[in-house]
Amino acid sequence: MARSKVQLAFIVNDVARKAAYKKRKKGLLKKVVELSTLCGIEACAIVYGPYEPQLEIWPSPEGVQFVLSKFMTMNEFQKCKKMMNQETFMTQRVLKVEEKLKK
User: φ, ψ for residue 81 (rounded to 5)?
Assistant: First the structure.
C-alpha cells in the first residue's frame, strides 16, 4: 500500500512533533548505516536536536573524527569535484532536458 504525501510544515502539537523527530532521526541513522554497509563507504552522522541534551553520533566519536579528518586532508579539488549547489544542479537538469528535446 502506498504512503500518503507528507505535508511539510511545522508540527504545532509538541507531542506529535517530538514523536516525528524521534522516528525520522531513527530512520536517518538507519539510512546512514545501510549506505555505509551496502556501498562500502565511510560515513558518519551527527544529530543535535532540541529534545536531547547530548549529540547523537554514529558510529562513534572516534569514527566521526576519522571521517572528518580524512575529508579535511583532501585537497580542494577533490572535495568540490562532486559537490553541487542548487544552481549547478538546475543548470545540469536544463541541459539534460534540452538534449532530450533535440533528440
Answer: -55, -45
Query: pTM (2 decimals)?
Result: 0.69
What grid cell was written down for 16?
A: 506529535
Domains of the chain (ranges, CATH numbers): 10-59 (3.40.1810)
CB atoms within 10 A of CB 45: 19
Grid cell at residue 31: 539510512
d(CA 55, CA 46): 7
pLDDT, average across residues 79-95: 87
Alpha-carbon span 82 to 62, nearest angstrom: 26
Average pLDDT of the chain to the nearest whole number: 90
